[in-house]
Each structure stands twice: as C-alpha cells, then as structure tokens.
Amino acid sequence: MHVTSQIREPLITGGKTMADVSEDLCRQVEGKPSKSWIVAFTVAVSVLTIGAISAGTLLWEGVGVWGLNKTVGWAWDITNFVWWVGIGHAGTLISAVLLLFRQKWRMSINRAAEAMTIFAVICAAMFPAFHMGRLWLGFYWALPLPNTFGSLWVNFNSPLLWDVFAISTYFSVSLVFWYIGLVPDFATIRDRAKNKVSKMIYGGLSLGWTGGAKDWSRYESVSLILAGLATPLVLSVHTIVSMDFATSVIPGWHTTIFPPYFVAGAIFSGFAMVLTLLLITRKVFHLEDYITIQHIELMNIIIIVTGSIVGIAYITEFFIAWYSGVPAEQYAFINRATGPYWWAYVSMMTANVVSPQVFWIKKIRTSIVATFILSIIVNIGMWFERFVIIVTSLHRDYVPSSWAMFYPTKHDVGMYLFSFGFFFTAYLLFSKFFPVVNIAEVKSILNTDGEKTTD
Amino acid sequence: MSGKRFSVGIFDHEDGVKEAVKSMRGEGVKIQEVYSPYAIHGIDEMLGYKMSRLPMASFLFGLTGTILALTMLYSMMGFDWPMIIGGKNFAALPPFIPVTFELTVLLAAFGMVFTFFVASDLKPWARPRMYDTRITQDKFAVVVDLDANSKSKDEIDTMLRNAGASEVNAKNFN
Asked: B26 to chain A nearest CA, in Å?
C-alpha cells in the first residue's frame, strides 16, 4: 500500500493531477518555442560560432595558438577539462545515489541534471581531444586498436589512458541511464501527439513502450542496477581525473588526498551548475510546482556540505605540505597562496569555502535570487580551484631560470567559449524537444488519491 | 500472444487496480497484463510474476567484462609488447584495476540494457499493441484475454466493473 507521511511537505505542489502533469511537462515539447527560448538559443549558437573560429584555428595551426610555454605546459585546456568533468558529476549523482538512498525529491530534477551531465562530459572530452592536435586521429591513438606501429599498444599504466576509459564509460552509461528514463515519457508524448511526424519520431524514440506491469518491473530493476553500477562509476571518474595529477611527482600535485577531494569538488560544482540551469528552466517553463523551494533548499544543503568538505581539503593539503617537511612541497603551497597567483587562490577560497557558508541561514538558502548568484559564484570558484592547482604547481619550476607566468591567448578563451556554446545549445535543444522533468516518476509521487492512499 | 479479443477495464487510481487484481485473481480469472502510467510497486507480485533475472544477466555481462579486460591488459602489456615504463613490472595488477573496473561496468550496464530491450521487445520500429492511449497519461488498465479464460465476456466485464473500473472497453486485435 502507498504510505504517505503526514509530516513531510508534498514534493509536488499545486494539487496536480496526473493529467496536469502530462499537460504541464509536455507543453513546451508540443508547442512553438517561446520567445525567451529563441533569444537564448540565438545567443548560445552565436557563442558556439565564435568559439568555432578558435577551434578551427587550433586545428589548422596546432596547439601553439594557446598561451602555453615550456614551463606551463598545461593550463586552461586541462582546467576546463577538469571543470566540465566535475560539473558532469551531479546528474548521475542525483539520479543514481539519490535513487539508492530512496530520496524521492530527485524525481523533479534528475532528468535535467542527467542531460546536463551528458553535455558537460562532451564539453570535457573536447579539450583532451583538441589537445591531441589531430582530432580525427584521437580515437586511433587513445584506444588499444591494432596499429602499424608494430602493434605498440597504448600505455595502460598511465592515468591519462585510465581517463579515456573512465570518461567514455561514464558518458555511455549515463547516456543509457538517461535514455531508459526517457522511454516512458516518449511514449506519453507519442500518445498525445496530434501530427504524424511527431508521432513517428517519438514513437521511434519510445521503442514501443506500452506501460505493461512486466515491462515496468524490468524497468525498475534495470534502473536500480544501473544506479548501483553508476554510483561507483561516478566516484571512479573523478578519482581517475585526480590521478592525472596525483600520480605525478610534481610538488602540489603529488597528494594522496586528491581523489576524495576532487570527488567532493565535483559534486559541489555539479550541484551549482544544476541550480543555475534549473532556476532558469523553472522560470522559463513555469515549473514552480515541480521544482519547489524545498528542492532548491535540499540542493543548497548539499552545496554547503560539499563546499565545506572542499574547504577542509584545502586546509589539510596545506597542513600536510608543512608537516611533510619537504621544502619543494612547502614552497609550492606558500607560492600558491602568496606568490604571483595569490589572486586566483583568494578567489578560490572566497568563492568555494567562504561564500557557501551563507547557506547556514535558512532565509538565504530558500531565496531564489541568492541561490542563483551563489551557484554562479561557486562555478567561478571551482574553475579557479583547478586553475590554481594546475598553473601554480607548474609555473615555478625546479630551476628558477625556467620560472614563467601563463598568459591566456584569445584562443584559450575561444575554446572555452566553444564549450560553453555547445553546452547551452545542447541544453536548450534538450529542453525544447524532451520533457525536462521525468513525467512518469513525478506521477508516482503525486498524492492525488488523498485520503485513500494514506494509511 | 494467444487471444485476439480482450476486455479492458479502465481505472482511475492505483489502489483500484490493486484491489481488482487481487479479487479477480482470487476468483481464478487470468489477467493478461496491467498497464499503468508509472511503476506500481508490488503489482508484479500480485500478478504472480517471477522476479526479473536481469540482475543475473548484468552480473554475467560484468564478469565477462572483467575477464575480457584482464585478458586484454595482460596479453598486451605482458606478452605482446612488454615495455619498460619507469622500471616497473611489465604486467602488474594495480595499474590495471581502473581499466578493468570501467570495462566491467560498461559491459554490465550495456549487456543488461540490451537484455532488457530484447526481453521487453523494445525497438524503434516496434508497433506496440496499445489497449488504450490514455495509459501513458493518467489511466490504469487491467486487460483480460477472453480466449484464455473460461468465463464469458459479460461475466468478466461485470467483474471488472464491480472491482471499480470506471469503464470497460472491448478491444480486438487481428
């Protein structure tokens, strides 16, 4: 029997019936795009086009168009990569981990968060792919394919190769997880469709879903197992990303705290990006009854928890550098905080550690404006975190004669814009053609039966 | 699918469906299938469905992934082209763990999902038998195959109505 707690607030407000849910969530899929959507889409495509100029230049000229030098051989490119992968962690975390913990509030936000994950991972993968210079040979070099170098295989001892496997697995499993969740909703759209074309397209996408109990039972076990598989997967991905640094012997990178610290940071930035996107989506598509203040508050609580974990990691790292007694390690950290990049360190500390603490105040964590501003600050802060870790650990090499600063060129900025343009273009297309909230799951948590279901 | 004539009882609530399934199965009526807009928890047991074997499929695919990955890693790094990297062993287990884990998860997930598609006959070109298009919106349907039951259509329709169906429709398929 369905048991409804009397104490908890309903997750979906406004007394919606199942018919209302279908209607509300299919509206933007079926209707003409709204003015605000068209404006946003135009901006996104413009940014993508501007970025494409840089991407094209990069392919034509080579990675020399970036501001890298022989001391700082990794800078914006890998910063952006780690930043996007981090953002790509929230979606699967919301849908998988919260499913295992039976947190029903995930149901209003998991669809959009998973879509965000998929696009963010594509954005992330873009950077190492472009960094290889010859994009079209990337797969050939990165995968263990038979080749004409005497079958010289890829180096399986390298964390960069682990990354190839981790990210491609993460991407494809997330995609499948997302798609499985979409199947019943595509069937809903198919059965509502008035014209032949959308009936055909959504009919194909729905794979002939009928909603039979047998299929639902299988669907539930598939979701549960995918969640069980995706949970260690999501943790493994950022662990492996952190090993790109941690397994090296560069002072400032060679740190065993990196895996948990990176994972916490990833969840932190991922939730911030989910909030940024969902607050806009909620406003534009009028989803106030589906994504309620309660959802926003719960996500803000996760932000404060993970933000504090990240803060503790920063301090621990500093302490251990001092405690290790290794001069190079100590110098790397002192230089990080007080050297020429002090401003990046201060931005990181303020944005990631200090600013989320305001969410201890209920009034602020339930305020939409404050949440929106904070979510953007956190994203900026997390970008700086990666920049600080990468650039400050490299720019003062072992020999002072090779000390250097990193100055980004317009193509560094351009590639970053390219990824942003792609991300928002993809997200906007998703929000127009796919239901942004999981229709079937939301129907299951409506309390429309009132007294009858409460026992 | 055996029969061609069906009685489709339409229900407005999840609870009504559960009660109908319980009472009708109690009276020996064979229910073809129950359709709902979302997963009704516990309905599979009421209908007497066995637990899905998808977890087992997933495990076996995962195991295949583990074995494949380790075989690939050891044969490439240890035998086919051993390379000295940092003076380490040619084939050591620790650096092979990440790739092995990822391939295990990849095969477990994809194998299970494809098994699910095959088992439930989900494919883009499928032409599903829809008993009512409102099922994917806000109605629940209890479908009874008339040829599989000894009771007459009227008896079954009455039973569905008594169980709380808001309407009972006849549906025939060729």
From this structure: 18
Per-residue pLDDT reduced to its tens digit, A243-288: 999 988 888 898 889 999 999 999 999 999 999 999 988 888 888 8
CATH number for the segment(s) B5-51+129-172 = 3.30.70
- Tell me if A169 and B106 make a contact (CB, 8 A cut-off): yes
Taking CB atoms and an 8 Å cutoff, what residues of chain A touch B103? 165, 169
- B122 with A207: Cβ contact below 8 A: yes
User: B117, B159, B146, B142: which is closest to B12 by C-alpha?
Assistant: B142
Domains and CATH numbers, chain A: 21-404+417-441 (1.20.1630.10)
CA-based nearest residue in chain B for residue A239: B98
- Across the A:B interface, residue pairs with CB atoms under 8 Å apart total 194
Written as one string, the DSSP assignment of A250-302 is -TTT--TTHHHHHHHHHHHHHHHHHHHHHHHHHHHTT-TTTS-HHHHHHHHHH
Write the residue in B14, B36, B116 that is nearest to A222 by C-beta.
B116
For B113, the closest of A19, A222, A441 (CB atoms) is: A222
**Cα torsion through A10, A16, A19, A22, rounded to 10:** -70
Q: What is the pLDDT of residues A300-318, one digit of tens each?
A: 999 999 999 999 999 999 9
Nearest residue of B to residue A449, measured between CA atoms: B13
Give the residue range(s) of CATH 3.30.70 domains in chain B. Answer: 5-51+129-172
Structure ipTM:
0.90
